[in-house]
Amino acid sequence: MNKSGENMKTIQTQDLSKILKPYSNEWVALSEKANKVISSGQDLSQVIKEAHKKGEKHPVVTRVPKDYGNYVLGL
Amino acid sequence: MAFKFAYKKFPQNPNDAFPDHKQAQRPVIPITVKYEDKEINYLALIDSGADFCIFHGEIGQVLGLEIKNGKKLEFFGVTGEKESAYFHEITINVGGHDKHCYCGFSEFDNSKLPYGILGQRGFFDMFKITMDYRKNRIELTAN
Fold first, then answer.
1. SS3 of A14, please?
2. Domain ranges of chain B
3. In the 8-state DSSP scheme, what is residue A47?
4. Residue B33 contacts residue B59 (beta carbons within 8 Å)
5. N or C: which end of chain A has fewer CB within 10 A?
6. Is there a contact between B57 and B64 (Cβ–Cβ < 8 Å)?
7. Distance to chain A for B31, nearest Cα, Å
8. How near does any CA of chain B get to the CA of A55, in Å?
9. pTM of the predicted model, to two decimals?
């Protein structure tokens, strides 16, 4: 239960595995809901400009690595 | 007030230890990184093992920061090699809440790092965080 006593309900995972796979080693601008790719490329500012040109006012950017790999992170 | 996010799935190559894995489910959330009059929406990983927040240097550049004018910190990170980050005072917005953040902008090898890192200082000290992997659910409450 959380602080308010409400059980945590299951929610749908957002699956980006298929839509990001073709963009290895590129910056990607996703739609505001982060469910589709609007633009991509090596230059982040150009990727954002292109997304705006395509009508996406609030793109969400992410970097697609060469390989998502198996992370055990900690800085 | 709590706000909720879903876990996200990312591509992953099967390997000897996990031959059936084609996806990795990770606590990655959308945030807005703000500096002066500019802002960028960006995906970032909630990483309790990170001591601080680190974002790609290019994010800072697009926001207009002079990255190397920040305070320099050397650390060992994702690649296992010594890396540098330059810390700046910025604002992050999560779930509609603006929070001040002293955050590092790194010159990571971009071919390796997929998202920003939300660590203990600058994120965990700002929010109460509940993560439920099996229910795919991340819940944040602003402190």
1. strand
2. 24-142
3. H
4. yes
5. N
6. no
7. 9
8. 16
9. 0.90
The answer to whether the Cβ–Cβ distance between B114 and A64 falls below 8 Å is: yes
Report chain A residues whose CB lies below 8 A from the CB of B9: 13-17
ipTM, interface predicted TM-score of the complex: 0.90
User: Does A20 contact B11 at a Cβ distance shorter than 8 Å?
Assistant: yes
Instruction: List per-residue pLDDT tens for chain A, 75 residues long.
Output: 444 444 567 777 889 988 998 998 999 999 998 889 999 999 999 999 999 999 999 999 999 987 766 665 555
Q: Measuring CA to CA, which residue among B55, B127, B49 is closest to residue B87?
A: B55
Determine the topology of domain B24-142 in CATH.
Answer: Cathepsin D, subunit A; domain 1 (2.40.70)
- Please indicate if any CB of chain B lies within 8 Å of the CB of A25: yes
Three-state SS sequence of chain B:
CEEEEECEEEECCCCCCCCCCCEEEECEEEEEEEECCEEEEEEEEECCCCCECEEEHHHHHHHCCCHHHCEEEEEECCCCCEEEEEEEEEEEEECCEEEEEEEEEECCCCCCCCCEEECCECCCCCEEEEEECCCCEEEEEEC
At B84-110, the pLDDT tens digits run 899 999 999 998 889 999 999 987 666
Is the CB of B119 less than 8 angstroms away from the CB of A75?
yes
Cβ–Cβ of B42/A9 closer than 8 Å?
no
> Position B65: which residue type?
L
